[in-house]
Design goal:
Blueprint lengths: L12 E4 L8 E4 L2 H24 L4
Keywords: Membrane, Transmembrane, Transmembrane helix
Length: 58
C-alpha cells in the first residue's frame, strides 16, 4: 500500500526541552509553563475543596 504523501510525521511529544529541535510538542519546559501549571493546580484544588465543603450538609 502506498503511503499518503500529505500525511505528516506523527511523533507528538508532551514536553519539549529548550535544546530540542522539534515542532511537535504541547508544552515547552520553561518557567512560564511551570508557573501556569502551579496556578491552574491551585485553582482546581481550591474549587474541589469548596465543592466538598459546601456539599457536606447531611
Amino acid at each position: 500500500m502506498k503511503k499518503d504523501t500529505k500525511q505528516g510525521e506523527e511523533d507528538m511529544k508532551l514536553i519539549k526541552d529548550k535544546n530540542e529541535k522539534t515542532r511537535n510538542y504541547l508544552f515547552q519546559k520553561n518557567k512560564i509553563t511551570v508557573v501556569a501549571f502551579i496556578i491552574v493546580f491551585i485553582i482546581i484544588v481550591a474549587l474541589l475543596i469548596s465543592v466538598f465543603a459546601t456539599s457536606s450538609h447531611i
